[in-house]
C-alpha cells in the first residue's frame, strides 16, 4: 500500500515554471526613474487589441448575466407562488410525514428539483456553452453535467440542514426569529467555510500538498517571514475544469490553507507565483475570512429585518398564495425572492467589500514578495477573464477584485519607490 502511495506521489507532475519575461522599458527603471502612470500604460499596451476586445466582451456580458440570472430566478419563485405550486408542495410534504423538520426537508427537495430544472437552460448557456465560447473551460458536456450533479447533492444535503434549522427557529421564536435566524445563518456560513477545503473541494478536485522544491522553498521562506506557521500550501488540478490561473485561501478555525492552481504553476514564472503567494498570504495575515464574516454578518442581520417586514406585508396582500405565515415552509419562494432582491440591490456594496480586501492583499503581497513585475504580469494574464481597463464607476460597481489597471498601477507605484528592485 505505501509503495503504491509512493508511486502516485512520484508521478505527481512538477510545475512547468515558465522563465520570467523582462518588464517593458518604461517599467524597468533603466532611465533612472519610474513614472508609475507611464509604466502602467506600457504594461497595459502589451495586451493585443483582439485579446482585449474578447476579455471586455466576456466580462461585460457577465453584468447582463447577473441581471438575467436574478430576473429568471425571481420569475420562477413568482410562478411557484402564483401558480399555487408552493402550497401544493407543502400539502404533499405534510401528507408524507407529521414530523415538522422532515416536512421542511421534503418541501425543500421538491423546491430544489423544480428550481434546478427551470434554471438549467441558463446554467448550460452561462457555465458550459459560454465558457467554451471564450476558451475558458476544459470540461466535456458530460463532465460538466457530472459536476452539476455533485453540486445538486451538496445543495440538497446542506440546504436541507440549513432550512430545517431556520424553520425550527422561526416556529419556536415567533417574535424574534429574524435576529436568531440571522445568527443561525452566520453559524452555517462559518461551518461551511470550515468544511470547504476538507470536504467540499475534494468532491470536485484532487488537492495535494505542493512538493516541487523550486516553488516550495521560496514560498516557505515567504511564510516564515510573515509568521505563517500553520498555513499549508496546496496545489489543485483546476485544469480539469478551467484554463483560468488562480489561487485562494480557504478554511477557518484550523482548516486554513493556501491553494495554488495548476494553471498558475504551469503558466506562471517564479516571480509571478511569488507575487500571487504574497497576495494570498495577505488574506491570511490580515484575517480576511473573519473580517468578511463580520461584514457579511451585518448585512445578513439587516437582510433578515427586511425579510420580516416585507414578508408580512406581501403575505397579507396576497391570500391567493395560500401561505399560513412566515413559519410555513410554503413561504420559502417568497423569502427567497425578498432575500435575493435584497442581495441583488446590494451587489455594488458586496463587490466593494470584497474588492477592498483584495486591494489590501495586493498591497500586502507587494511588500511581502517584492515582485512588482511578477504581480503586474499576473494581472495582465488575469485579463483573460477580467476586463483590464474599466471606467472608475464600473470598477466600483461590478468588480469584486481590482481591475488589471488598478493592480498594475499599484505594483508600479510600489516599484517606483523601491529602486533596489529595478531591473
Ligand atoms: Zn485575493
Radius of gyration: 24 Å
Helicity range of the residues? 55-70%
Which cofactors or ions or other ligands sit in this model? zinc ion
Task: Return residue spans where pLDDT drops below 50 for at least 5 consecutive residues.
Answer: 1-12
Q: Report strand %.
A: under 5%
Quickly count the helices.
16
Mean pLDDT: 91
User: Terminal Cα separation, in Å?
Assistant: 50 Å
Order of helices and strands: HHHHHHHEHEEEHHHHHHHH
User: Total strand count, please?
Assistant: 4
Shape: elongated
Strand order of the largest sheet: 1-2-4-3
Structural class: mainly alpha
Q: Give the biggest beta sheet.
A: 4 strands, mixed
Write a structural description.
The protein is mainly alpha-helical and 423 residues long. The chain has helices spanning 2-10, 36-44, 49-82, 85-96, 100-133, 141-172, 177-204, 213-225, 262-267, 270-285, 288-317, 332-345, 347-369, 372-381, 392-398, 404-416, and strands spanning 208-209, 232-236, 247-250, 257-261.
Amino acid at each position: 500500500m505505501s509503495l503504491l502511495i509512493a508511486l502516485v506521489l512520484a508521478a505527481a507532475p512538477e510545475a512547468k515554471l515558465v522563465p520570467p519575461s523582462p518588464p517593458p522599458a518604461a517599467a524597468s527603471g533603466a532611465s533612472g526613474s519610474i513614472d508609475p502612470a507611464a509604466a502602467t500604460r506600457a504594461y497595459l499596451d502589451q495586451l493585443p487589441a483582439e485579446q482585449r476586445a474578447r476579455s471586455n466582451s466576456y466580462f461585460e456580458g457577465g453584468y447582463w448575466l447577473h441581471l438575467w440570472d436574478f430576473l429568471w430566478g425571481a420569475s420562477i419563485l413568482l410562478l411557484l407562488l402564483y401558480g399555487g405550486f408552493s402550497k401544493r408542495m407543502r400539502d404533499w410534504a405534510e401528507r408524507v410525514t407529521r414530523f415538522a423538520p422532515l416536512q421542511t426537508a421534503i418541501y425543500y427537495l421538491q423546491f430544489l428539483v423544480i428550481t434546478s430544472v427551470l434554471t438549467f437552460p441558463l446554467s448550460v448557456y452561462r457555465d458550459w456553452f459560454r465558457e467554451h465560447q471564450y476558451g475558458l473551460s476544459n470540461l466535456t458536456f458530460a463532465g460538466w453535467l457530472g459536476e452539476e450533479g455533485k453540486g445538486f447533492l451538496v445543495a440538497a444535503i446542506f440546504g436541507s440542514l440549513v432550512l430545517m434549522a431556520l424553520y425550527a427557529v422561526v416556529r419556536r421564536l415567533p417574535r424574534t426569529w429574524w435576529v436568531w435566524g440571522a445568527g443561525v445563518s452566520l453559524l452555517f456560513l462559518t461551518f461551511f467555510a470550515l468544511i470547504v477545503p476538507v470536504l467540499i473541494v475534494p468532491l470536485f478536485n484532487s488537492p495535494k500538498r505542493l512538493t516541487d522544491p523550486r516553488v516550495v522553498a521560496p514560498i516557505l521562506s515567504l511564510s516564515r517571514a510573515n509568521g505563517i506557521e500553520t498555513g499549508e500550501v496546496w496545489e489543485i488540478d483546476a485544469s480539469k475544469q478551467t484554463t483560468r490561473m488562480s489561487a485562494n485561501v480557504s478554511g477557518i478555525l484550523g482548516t486554513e490553507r493556501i491553494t495554488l492552481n495548476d494553471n498558475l504553476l504551469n503558466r506562471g514564472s517564479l516571480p509571478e507565483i511569488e507575487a500571487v503567494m504574497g497576495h494570498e498570504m495577505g488574506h491570511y495575515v490580515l484575517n480576511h475570512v473573519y473580517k468578511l464574516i463580520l461584514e457579511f454578518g451585518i448585512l445578513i442581520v439587516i437582510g433578515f429585518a427586511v425579510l420580516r417586514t416585507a414578508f408580512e406585508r406581501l403575505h397579507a396582500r396576497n391570500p391567493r398564495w395560500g401561505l399560513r405565515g412566515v413559519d410555513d415552509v410554503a413561504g420559502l419562494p417568497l423569502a427567497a425572492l425578498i432575500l435575493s432582491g435584497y442581495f441583488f440591490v446590494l451587489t455594488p456594496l458586496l463587490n466593494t467589500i470584497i474588492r477592498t480586501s483584495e486591494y489590501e492583499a495586493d498591497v500586502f503581497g507587494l511588500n511581502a514578495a517584492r515582485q512588482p513585475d511578477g504581480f503586474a504580469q499576473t494581472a495582465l494574464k488575469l485579463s483573460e477573464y477580467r476586463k483590464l481597463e474599466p471606467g472608475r464607476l464600473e470598477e466600483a460597481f461590478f468588480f469584486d477584485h481590482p481591475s488589471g489597471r488598478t493592480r498594475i498601477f499599484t505594483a508600479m507605484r510600489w516599484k517606483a519607490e523601491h529602486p533596489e528592485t529595478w531591473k
